[in-house]
Q: What sequence folds into this?
């Protein structure tokens, strides 16, 4: 926990919320049992009181007001001016001033409520916080939160409507898989049917819905079932966004131990590409936006609107599959080292030479690349 003077920020937010103001409503995860997830393990869940959250908003507002009174837009700000302004700030409140300045620089468009599931505090309390946020920062365009399917169902249509009317716009749900076998194995605490019901309810009430999907979560054994059942669940929900976030294992996640014991065989990049072909190929009758906005994705450009971009998205995966094994190795390595973003980058001879030199100097071959990639990906979790 990152505890500041009267102002708290938790450990994670969705990549799409990088420019959002973070408002912490709960600490950690009430469920905390998903075996692939290391984020809140060994951390105790607690709810922050509405008054505590409101006092964070007030403190942030105080500093934002002084910044806005001094500058009309972020473009005007020089380092000297910021330094002059900080001289008037209580040193204990400097971290809050920094958050306020960052949000000002980011345009003050959106807010993200932390941590793992803000809706657990109940619709009445959440609506109070949302109304206070909107009253304090009336220009905000978007307020979003993570939630779990089981919490959405528990909140019910009436509660969700209350929260939506208080202007929560978007909910990010970790669907992870549509396969009940996979969901049970990783202790997600939801079934396919629950995911579908919760997702449809959120959409019916008027939320923008982001569903996170985790390629590779079924391992080698369940890869086909995972792909087909996930596509089927998504076809029933038609979420606004399908966000791909492939499995990466760290020793802090219980699933890592399962893998060490041989109860779970992790897919490599080539198997994930095959799984994605099956998953995306089976998405039918929906208009979702597919996004690969997490650094863990092998292809940063695997993005587009369904149905019109489906063939183009699939063609990226086919291109990778048709590459020879040396080119696949160089792309996998280069992508994870930040040399390439897309397959097209391999046409840049300097970039390609860089990847090739690293592979040669470090002795990276098709025999050891999987372990190396796993180690590199662990750093991004
Ligand atoms: S994946 Fe989400 S619900 Fe599961 S333990 Fe992690 S934070 Fe909690």
A:
């Amino acid at each position: 926990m990152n505890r500041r003077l009267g102002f708290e920020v938790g450990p994670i937010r969705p990549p799409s919320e990088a420019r959002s103001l973070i408002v912490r409503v709960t600490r950690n995860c009430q469920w905390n049992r998903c075996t692939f997830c290391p984020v809140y393990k060994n951390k105790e869940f607690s709810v922050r009181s509405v008054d505590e959250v409101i006092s964070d908003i007030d403190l942030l507002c105080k500093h934002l007001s002084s910044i806005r009174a001094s500058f009309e837009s972020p473009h005007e700000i020089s380092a000297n001016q910021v330094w002059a302004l900080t001289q008037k700030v209580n040193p204990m409140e400097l971290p809050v001033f920094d958050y306020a300045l960052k949000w000002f620089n980011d345009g003050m468009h959106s807010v993200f409520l932390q941590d793992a599931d803000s809706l657990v505090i109940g619709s009445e309390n959440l609506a109070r916080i949302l109304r206070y946020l909107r009253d304090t920062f009336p220009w905000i365009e978007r307020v979003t939160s993570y939630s779990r399917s089981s919490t959405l169902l528990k909140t019910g249509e009436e509660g969700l409507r209350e929260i939506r009317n208080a202007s929560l716009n978007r909910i990010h749900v970790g669907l992870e898989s549509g396969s009940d076998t996979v969901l049970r194995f990783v202790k997600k605490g939801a079934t396919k049917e629950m995911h579908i019901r919760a997702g449809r309810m959120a959409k019916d009430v008027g939320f923008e819905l982001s569903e996170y999907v985790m390629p590779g979560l079924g391992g080698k054994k369940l890869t086909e079932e995972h792909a087909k059942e996930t596509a089927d669940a998504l076809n029933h929900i038609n979420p606004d966004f399908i966000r791909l976030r492939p499995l990466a294992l760290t020793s802090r996640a219980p699933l890592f131990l399962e893998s060490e014991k041989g109860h779970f065989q992790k897919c490599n990049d080539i198997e994930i590409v095959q799984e994605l072909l099956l998953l995306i190929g089976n998405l039918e009758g929906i208009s979702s936006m597919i996004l690969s906005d997490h650094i863990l994705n092998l292809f940063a450009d695997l993005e587009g609107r369904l149905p019109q971009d489906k063939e183009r998205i699939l063609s990226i995966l086919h291109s990778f599959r048709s590459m020879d094994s040396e080119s696949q190795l160089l792309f996998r390595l280069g992508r994870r080292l930040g040399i390439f973003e897309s397959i097209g980058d391999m046409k840049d001879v300097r970039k390609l030479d860089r990847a090739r030199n690293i592979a040669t100097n470090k002795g990276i071959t098709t025999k050891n690349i999987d372990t190396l990639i796993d180690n590199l990906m662990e750093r991004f979790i």
Summary: The pocket of iron/sulfur cluster is lined by residues 29, 31-32, 34, 37, 39-40, 116, 148, 174 (CB under 6 Å). The longest strand covers residues 170-176. The first helix runs from residue 50 to 70.
